[in-house]
Amino acid sequence: MTRATETTVQSISAAAPDTAKDPVIACAGITARYNRISVVHGVDLEVRAGELLAVLGPNGAGKSSMLGAIAGIVSGGGEVRIGGTDIGRMSANARAARGLSFVPEQRGNIFPAMSVRENIDVGLRLLDPGEREAQRDFILDMFPILKVRDKAHAGVLSGGEQQMLAIGLALGRNPAVLVLDEPSQGLAPAVFDILENAFNALKARGLALLLAEQNVPFASRIADRYIILSQGEVMRRGGKDDLKNPEELADVFMGGADN
Ligand SMILES: Nc1ncnc2c1ncn2[C@@H]1O[C@H](COP(=O)(O)OP(=O)(O)OP(=O)(O)O)[C@@H](O)[C@H]1O
Fold this sequence. Notes:
The protein is of the alpha/beta class. It is built from 11 helices and 10 strands.
């Protein structure tokens, strides 16, 4: 990564949280496809600094594919603007260098044979050396268990610890936007509190958070706004008022509701 790019990432993520400002990430007409089969058909969304947008929807709705297309790991199209620049045709690495970090489903970004510390070092390696220790402290203050498990192989951690490490690794580059695919999947409810606190800390720092979630009650705790995907299209979008009633929201796309 060039020095200039590092500066861009830093200046975006250092912005004070102000949800009234322009979005940190603005996506328009996002599509995703596997070979010639199109599974996401033109989704618009935006997330401001200090805001969390949850992507809800049933199995197979296209949540993972859409996040993958935004991150550049699934084929697709559409605009992905970060800080005003369209990164939608860049490689996944170039998007990461522009401030977009992705935590895939099932913590797929961690290196199981490496220690916790080595994983975090991998995440930090592209950050300016002068900023690495402060970012490491930020990550370890958010997830103190990772300090305790410093020398353990990532592959032997519990699911919750692995999720914390996956987020810690993704934060290494001090991103402006964190995209997470079903972070609560398969985790014990006790870990939900830790994730909620972590997301609140990231929002307070001014990051924009975009995540897919199957667990609507958990999404309703952490999200400021939501979209519901169905068959690759947005079937509904809304905010805190709807999120106060997660059962009703889940009924919109589960159990055959005819919304
Ligand atoms: N690697 C792939 N190759 C071909 N088709 C795929 C692939 N991954 C997903 N699909 C298809 O794309 C569509 C959207 O799937 P996707 O996994 O994005 O949905 P999802 O909402 O994330 O569901 P889930 O919560 O079950 O992961 C589905 O029809 C799925 O079968």
